[in-house]
Amino acid sequence: MAPFLDTVKSFDAVEINDAGVNTAEFLEASEGLVRLFDLLGSTAFGVVQSDLKGNIEKVKARYLAAPTLSATLEQLVENEKGEKKRVATEGLLWLLRGLQFTCQALLFAQANTDAELTSAFSSSYEGTLKKFHNFVVKGIFSVALKACPYRKDFYAKLAADPAGGPSASQEKVSTELDKWLAALDKIVNKLQTFYETEGHNKGF
Question: Measuring CA to CA, which residue among 158, 178, 153 is closest to residue 32?
Fold first, then answer.
């Protein structure tokens, strides 16, 4: 029995030490989150997936180019500070925004067990990404949000074994999802505070 969350790296397993958030582990966990949108089963969310993937690649490229200076995300951003184009810094900032959007939507769904996903993702969008988007992008998201699957179908996919084995119980899924989301929320908040405190978000 291996439900979806057992097949991806949990944000709960991402190391955080005095130097910051482990870059390689964070990227692996973020790639797992991108796969979550496949379970939503709507091509409308392709724009979200594409954006997340693109920003992951920007951060990964910097990490691979200067691994000793990028062991943690904080170190990666600090070491790019003097460069004219801070591609990875901007990419990580937008990645965090996308992760926050996803995290807050699922936290809403977990806290409001009668709420459909359209409500959960719409509520999250209002409080996270919407303020950064222009009229055209807002329209794209409006279509995507209306295309969310039914809650019961999404949670059934979370419980299903991709290998075809028996599904996990909804209790197990909910417990693992709570742990996954709590860790993700902690990391996003930590890094967004770092950006704001150190002024790394200026210009973006």
Answer: 158
